[in-house]
Amino acid sequence: MVVSTTTPGSDDAALHCTFASRYVRTALPRYKMPENSIPKEAAYQIISDELMLDGNPRLNLASFVTTWMEPEVDKLMMDSISKNYVDMDEYPVTTELQNRCVNMIAGLFNAPVGEHQTAVGVGTVGSSEAIMLAGLAFKRRWQNRRKAEGKPCDKPNIVTGANVQVCWEKFARYFEVELKEVKLREGYYVMDPVKAAEMVDENTICVAAILGSTLTGEFEDVKTLNDLLTEKNKETGWDTPIHVDAASGGFIAPFLYPDLVWDFRLPLVKSINVSGHKYGLVYAGVGWVVWRAKEDLPDELIFHINYLGSDQPTFTLNFSKGSSQIIAQYYQFIRLGFEGYKDIMENCMQNAKALKEGLEKTGRFEIVSKDVGVPLVAFALKDSSQHTVFEIAETLRKFGWIVPAYTMPADAEHIAVLRVVIREDFSFSLAERLLADIEKVLKEVDDRPSRSSTKAAQVTALLDETKGSEADGPVVKSVKHIEEGVTSYWKKFVDRKKTNGPC
């Protein structure tokens, strides 16, 4: 029999086994760089293990962002991951692919571009950058016009609905523009075009309409808004334009609702943004912004650089960025074509319909979203006196589902809903599985003490604390102390509502 021995200091295979190595047994510093390097296998395994605690992107029904692509486009993205998009002289083909995408998107949105003309637009890091760029163009055009008229230009504003994404609030705060929001009301969770037109004044740089509200998926009435602003512009001599935030709906409406007039067919629509990483079917993060015509993008906002090899015009907030998402967007366009996108969007809507019908059959929910819009289902409890949508969202996490629960913006804060976004990879089978798990959650929640009785018991216990015991002698607590304790309890309950927000 041969007896194997190990010589100290030899190349022991155990040291190359990740789980047997000392690197896994020894805690690594988290917030400072470690002194020594570790094997690549150990570094990979440590990070991979920790990432297992993240949620499953496929079950994240809060997000509109694409979570699945074909392996061929995955390979294309990895092949181009080292390309810096901004170096147009070094990577001219990538630049050409971006230009092709811009023109295809402009065609989808009915931009008035001739057959041999080039559309005006740019790829961005998501719709947030796209909105910043469009907003800056509106602000600069408004300022230039006001200066030419000899009028002050220090108080610009944008009119939009209270249902806007946070990126509009960021634009307003970062670039010093007042955000005038049309408040919502129960049963009407998008911007009212009549109220929006009424809020417009001489300092309004644009009205921002949303094609696919984050809250309910609804399309706002851009045509009515265009008609109302056209009349107001005639009466006042102003030139208030429209921007359409089509982040979610821009790759849905052209395929499912071709007769819906919301885009560059309306004269006052000067720019449109859309998220390639949502229903454009590309991984995060790529967005697009397209202008109606060259004159809608002021020349002074475009920078020209030559230190990368040639004259390169650029209009971005970022400089360096990856090329892979732009290449992936072009892949999806030529791979799927119009009919392919249409088929996918129709399938998403069918799955949304199946989920909606299943929820209605429970008898417990009211559907808040509409049939026309983004394929999602927003729904509220018919009776929230005993339990809330926040309890349902929290309990669904036990089954792996991430379903956001949130309250509506002003003036509909008393309405709390759950929302399920239907993406390409959310199949009919997953919809059935989700419905079955919702049924289990409803039963589990029903078996718990009601929300009102639990609160009452906790508040009573809190107040009983202030009485002390006879054995210990009287414990006297001030009214202020009691109020602080009760307030602390209620604050914890209210803060739970903020754990899931719209994405």
UniProtKB/TrEMBL annotation:
InterPro entries, alphabetized = Glutamate_decarboxylase (IPR010107), PyrdxlP-dep_de-COase (IPR002129), PyrdxlP-dep_Trfase (IPR015424), PyrdxlP-dep_Trfase_major (IPR015421)
User: What's a Pfam family this protein contains?
Assistant: Pyridoxal_deC
For the modification N6-(pyridoxal phosphate)lysine, the affected residues are K278
Family designation: Belongs to the group II decarboxylase family.
Q: What class of enzyme is it?
A: lyase
- What protein name does the entry list? Glutamate decarboxylase
Q: Kindly give the SUPFAM superfamilies that the UniProt entry links to this protein.
A: PLP-dependent transferases
The UniProt GO MF terms for this protein read: glutamate decarboxylase activity; pyridoxal phosphate binding
Q: Which reaction does it catalyse?
A: L-glutamate + H(+) = 4-aminobutanoate + CO2
